[in-house]
């Protein structure tokens, strides 16, 4: 047995506390003896599963104090359900509360089917709201589960989790990653296959592999079930079952009951052989039973009344429960006390569906479509009946896809759009539906469907506006970076949209172009083409969407004017979080990280409240980027770390990369060079592989800051110089404004004063046109640092007092440089005040290398400031977040809601935080978190 962590209608039944039945003949993978309710699972209860049972027992042993998630993986019929049943029985014996969900393939396209009954059970009737997205649902599930476990530890068992609908899977995986501190154990069984591989890739959930039984245990299990088999038949069953417990039992039963000739050929895969074996069993049942089994197999719910009503409609006469009794006796399905129907094994369901002819299947789908009341379930069955084109059903499917998209059920929306396209007769509309489906498939991370759809879309049938989207997606699929080559044509498409009266779509197209524009170094003509369309938009001059486009597409041409408009919005009523996010990005793109931080703080808070984790991840990346520009390493590292985790969790690979680079910059500023270099190297390999050369500027910035913090000034200058050199692959037209201060510091420390002055002179003309605060701050640093000795002092004083008032990191570094300049001129007493001020600011920002340099200069002046050990340096980024929020007076429940954690997880973190900071109360915590680092001696 080995654990590993995977790389970062209603369900059939939900059983309450004390309800799981004993392990009996319906459980495969071990001995068939019954275990009394409440008894501990004995080591030999399941044949050959001692190791797996020990792993489950260890997880249960921890459950009163802490929880977690464990995925049981293996082939169909290998015994995963038996192991889950054993765990449920043991949990009930320990008086733990046990909940059970069994997913079915028919519900795969129904948003939130997997968690709806769970929520009803936990919340006393509350169900998933039509407006909820997967992460809002996940937060609700997390809260309800952890609250339910406060008085009594809880075990949640999920069978066939590979068939959970995508929103339910996302919600439960989200919950599963956050259960370590809570007495909730989530156990999920998943059958090997592409769906399982796709879901577990990067999920970060612990796995327990359930292999086939070895030869000795397989023989022992077979002898218990079929002791009278002829030796030759026994040998054949053992060979063909290959250690699969379900295969052993079903092949043995089929051979005994129906004869050896009914065994499928050994050349077929075991799953196929089992399905054929079940088909033999089904074929022996009465015709009414077979018909009703097909209704149950094709139904996407498990309610007995639905099945009987549809069966009666299909048969043309009343059908009663008695018709299902032969199937129950044949151990093909079960009916629980609440009249919910569940198949004994998913292969039974798939076998029944495969054996039915197309005419019979269509008849059953038609009956179900008449019986079901839920509109979305009904339209799927109507679509299953339809053979040729049908515009009405296509429109209903498209409408259902939109409802699913709004709820965040993107996989369901993709499937609905694909089926709608098949039923649509108009080529242009069909191609548009497929473009929508491809875009959603990309958003959900389904690369196989995404690429397959791109191959079948007919570009000539698309309107010009949709061709732009198709070009973007094909570029993504190819893993290439086209830069600015298509911007002019896409701007022309946006203009045609505008002329056609579709302003909203024109704006969305321009937004899509402008973000890439900022990162592509387009020539002036290209920028002007985009800006010309933006100027013709019929929007309020202060519309955040317009300001976003102007800022990212034309920082040089429209920078100063756009900054004025952004400044005006700072004093107005707050728009919603999405528009705040746009304003924050626009401010950052124009070199104004201060306003960006203000806008983004409100945006992040609003997005947290709305549970919009995908956009929140992007917002946190921009927040971290702005904080790093201001030298605030604490906020930069905290936001970048959370952003990277959320971006990975929501399948946004490129935002993971950007978060990684921003985190690397924060690490470099803090003096953690090894971590910064490793992150930068990894990012560089990715950027080079896709040809995203302008983004290499971020890599060079990290390397330059790392070398600068370590005193390798010439190396730092060489790294940073590449960003301002137009012929270099790492050149970036706008990032050169924000790196000028670093370039000036590195250059003047290694004797390249003339080159620093030359670069500053080249950038000086852009200051007025762009209005860029970052460029103005950089020029102030460069003028002072590179000035001749006889002209330097007034420039130092002006920079410190005026130019850099809103730039704490640049101001502190200039104070350090000024103090050093004074000390070298034997003006030691005068040097101390700026050095002291520099130390305080640099320590508060977390820029340890510069703070240490300032302390060395102060010691050389004859004064010492020893830095007291600061426990805050020992906190992880998440612990810093929690400590800051607790210091602000927020209760654990509110902190948990903001950070998408459970209250108990917050409590556990605080339990670790207090000793690190040497405090014992929230009052002391608030004092420590607000204190200025360092003490004087």
TrEMBL record:
GO terms for molecular function: adenylate cyclase activity; ATP binding; DNA binding. Keywords: ATP-binding, Nucleotide-binding. Residues 868-933 form the HTH luxR-type domain. This is LuxR family transcriptional regulator. One of its GO terms (cellular component) is cytoplasm. Residues 1-30 are annotated as: Disordered. Coiled coil: none annotated. GO terms for biological process: regulation of DNA-templated transcription. It comes from Spongiactinospora rosea. It comes from the Bacteria.
């Amino acid at each position: 047995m080995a654990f590993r962590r995977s790389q970062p209608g209603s369900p059939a039944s939900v059983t309450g506390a004390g309800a799981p039945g004993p392990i009996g003949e319906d459980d495969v993978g071990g001995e068939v003896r019954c275990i009394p309710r409440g008894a501990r699972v004995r080591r030999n209860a399941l044949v050959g599963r001692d190791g797996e049972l020990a792993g489950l027992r260890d997880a249960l042993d921890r459950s009163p104090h802490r929880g977690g998630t464990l995925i049981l993986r293996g082939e169909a019929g290998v015994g995963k359900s038996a192991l889950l049943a054993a765990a449920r029985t043991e949990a009930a014996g320990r008086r733990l509360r046990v909940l059970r969900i069994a997913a079915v393939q028919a519900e795969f396209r129904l948003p939130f089917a997997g968690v709806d009954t769970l929520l009803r059970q936990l919340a006393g009737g509350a169900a998933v709201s039509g407006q909820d997205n997967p992460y809002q649902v996940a937060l609700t599930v997390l809260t309800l589960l952890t609250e339910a476990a406060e008085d009594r530890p809880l075990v949640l068992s999920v069978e066939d989790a590979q068939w959970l609908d995508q929103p339910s899977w996302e919600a439960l995986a989200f919950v599963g990653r956050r259960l370590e501190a809570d007495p909730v154990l989530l156990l999920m069984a998943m059958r090997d296959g592409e769906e399982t591989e796709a879901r577990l890739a990067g999920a970060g959930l612990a796995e327990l592999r359930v292999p086939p039984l070895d030869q000795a245990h397989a023989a022992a299990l077979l002898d218990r079930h079929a002791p009278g088999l002829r030796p030759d038949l026994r040998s054949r069953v053992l060979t063909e079952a290959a250690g699969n417990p379900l295969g052993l039992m079903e092949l043995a039963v089929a051979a005994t009951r129906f004869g050896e000739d009914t065994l499928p050929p050994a050349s077929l895969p075991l799953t196929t052989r089992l399905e054929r074996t079940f088909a033999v069993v089904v074929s022996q049942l009465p015709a009414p039973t077979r018909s009703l089994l097909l209704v149950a197999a094709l139904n996407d719910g498990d309610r007995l009344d639905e099945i009987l009503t549809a069966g009666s409609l299909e048969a043309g006469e009343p059908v009663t429960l008695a018709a299902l009794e032969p199937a129950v006796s044949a151990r093909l399905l079960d009916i629980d006390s609440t009249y919910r129907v569940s198949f004994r094994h998913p292969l039974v369901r798939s076998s029944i569906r495969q054996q039915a002819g197309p005419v019979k299947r269509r008849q059953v789908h038609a009956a179900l479509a008449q019986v079901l009341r839920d509109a979305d379930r009904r339209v799927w069955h109507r679509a299953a009946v339809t053979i040729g084109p049908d515009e009405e059903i296509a429109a209903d499917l498209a409408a259902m896809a939109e409802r699913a998209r709004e709820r965040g059920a993107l996989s369901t929306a993709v499937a609905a759009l694909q089926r709608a396209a098949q039923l649509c007769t108009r080529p242009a509309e069909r191609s548009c539906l497929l473009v929508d489906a491809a875009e959603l498939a990309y958003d959900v991370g389904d690369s196989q469907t995404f690429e397959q759809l791109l191959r079948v879309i007919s570009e000539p049938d698309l309107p010009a506006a949709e061709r732009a989207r198709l070009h973007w997606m094909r570029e993504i699929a190819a893993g290439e970076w086209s830069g600015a080559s298509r911007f002019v044509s896409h701007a022309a498409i946006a203009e045609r949209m505008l002329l056609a009266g579709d302003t909203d779509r024109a704006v969305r197209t321009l937004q899509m172009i402008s973000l890439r524009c900022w990162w592509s170094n387009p020539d002036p003509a290209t920028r002007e083409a985009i800006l010309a369309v933006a100027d013709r938009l019929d929007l309020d001059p202060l519309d955040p969407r317009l300001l976003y486009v102007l800022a990212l597409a034309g920082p040089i041409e429209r920078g100063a004017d756009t900054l004025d408009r952004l400044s005006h919005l700072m004093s107005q009523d707050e728009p919603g979080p999405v528009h705040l996010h746009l304003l924050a990005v626009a401010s950052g793109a124009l070199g104004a990280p201060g306003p960006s931080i203000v806008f983004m703080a409100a945006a992040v808070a609003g997005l947290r409240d709305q549970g919009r984790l995908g956009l929140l991840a992007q917002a946190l990346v921009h927040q971290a980027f702005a904080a790093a520009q201001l030298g605030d390493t604490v906020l930069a590292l905290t936001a970048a770390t959370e952003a990277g985790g959320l971006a990975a969790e929501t399948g946004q690979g490129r935002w993971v990369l950007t978060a990684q680079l921003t985190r690397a910059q924060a690490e470099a500023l803090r003096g953690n060079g090894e971590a910064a270099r490793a992150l930068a190297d990894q990012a560089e390999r990715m950027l080079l592989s896709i040809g995203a050369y302008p983004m290499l500027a971020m890599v060079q910035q990290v390397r330059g800051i790392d070398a600068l913090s370590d005193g390798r000034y010439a190396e730092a200058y060489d790294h940073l110089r590449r960003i301002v050199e137009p012929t270099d692959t790492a050149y970036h037209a706008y990032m050169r404004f924000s790196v000028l201060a670093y370039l000036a510091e590195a250059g003047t420390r290694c004797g390249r004063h003339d080159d620093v002055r030359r670069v500053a002179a080249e950038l000086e003309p852009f200051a007025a046109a762009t209005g860029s605060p970052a460029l103005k701050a950089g020029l102030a640093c460069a003028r002072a640092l590179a000035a001749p000795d006889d002209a330097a002092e007034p420039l130092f004083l002006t920079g410190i007092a005026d130019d850099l008032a809103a730039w704490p990191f640049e101001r502190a570094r200039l104070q350090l440089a000024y103090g050093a300049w004074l000390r070298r001129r034997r003006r030691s007493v005068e040097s101390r005040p700026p050095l002291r001020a520099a130390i305080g600011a640099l320590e508060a920002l977390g820029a340890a290398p510069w703070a240490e340099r300032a302390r060395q200069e102060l010691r050389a002046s004859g004064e010492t400031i020893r830095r007291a050990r600061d426990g805050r340096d020992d906190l992880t980024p998440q612990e810093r977040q929690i400590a800051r929020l607790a210091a602000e007076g927020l209760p654990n429940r509110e902190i948990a809601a903001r950070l998408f954690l459970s209250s108990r997880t917050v409590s556990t973190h605080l339990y670790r935080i207090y000793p690190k900071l040497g405090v014992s109360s929230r009052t002391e915590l608030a004092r420590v978190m607000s204190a200025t680092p360092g003490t004087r001696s």
